[in-house]
Amino acid sequence: MGCVKDLAELNDLTSIPTKYTYFNTFDQEDGIDAVAAEEKIPIIDFPLLNSAIPDQRAKVIQDLGKACQDWGFFMLVNHGVPESLMERMLAICQEFFNQPEDVKLQSAEEHVLAPLRYGTSFNPSVDKVFFWRDFLRIWMHPQFYSPPTPAGFSEIAMEYSQRTRQVARELLRGISQSLGLEECYIDKAMEMDSCFQILVANLYPPCPQPELAMGFPPHSDTGLLTLLIQNQNGGLQVNHNGKWVNVHVSSPNTILVNVADHLERLSNGKYKSVLHRAIVNNKTTRISLAETHGPCPDKIVTPVAELVENETYPAVYPGMTYKEEMYSRLSNQIAGKSHLEPLHEST
């Protein structure tokens, strides 16, 4: 398979192989330099969602809805997931990637929906250009999987998935209210007791020609919400109003949250999944852990009836299960949001 980590660690590597040349391969309009001036990314203070002060709670739900509508992205603070647990989760994933290749290949299942899958790029069997990225994808819920090594991975990942799942469900309750629905509407309608929770650990090693390579190209995520943590080496960019915005995290205890495709379907396009990408650098390794929280795998997701007005706001998207969309996405080349084609444009 040939992982990027081993390639990056070659002593004589001064340029990247042509198959990793992203910006000179296509006529890219989203070049690395096309980055907007620094903008203030929304911040949501998690405990306020359960504030006993009605005005305070109403304000944060309004802010949450505005962040989902205007950005599709926000920073979550005071979320209750221990910083020590986040650090241990990042460290154990680093340990996984530091193992010999033959050990990691024990998790290299070929099927794109394998519950435990190690690989490189996105889908090497169809990728026209390779991305400067190695990954480990794991199903966390409703069934929990874990690589056999390194020691302790299962215990740390189990605790981390349980804590973050609680956070995601609480956020969805707030989002449900921000859409004018009952607090538990999304949780019940999407059968979140059986939610499909997937962890993707991404490794982006130093690259000798970062101006030519791409860690991960512009894309949106499947599911309802993605919760992401990373080490302190930046590289995440979010597309806002047609410009790329660098995401600078002031505290290592911040969780980055973005709206995903099934929330766009469910909200009938009111809350849109956000395009984001990962760029690379020539000095440090970036690790990110992206955890998608989707509905029950076989639940058909359609726009909520209360958000559909036949003439003014007709249903924009067809129904699709999370599992169907996952298979469709992972079996093909990654291409922005081309998979999320509306039935017709909303007005």
TrEMBL record:
UniProtKB keywords: Iron, Metal-binding, Oxidoreductase
Molecular functions per Gene Ontology: metal ion binding; oxidoreductase activity
Keyword check for 4Fe-4S: no
Signal peptide: none
Residue ranges occupied by any Fe2OG dioxygenase domain in the UniProt entry: 191-295
A Pfam family per the record: 2OG-FeII_Oxy
Domain of life: Eukaryota
Family: Belongs to the iron/ascorbate-dependent oxidoreductase family.
The protein's name: Dmr6-like oxygenase
Organism: Thalictrum thalictroides
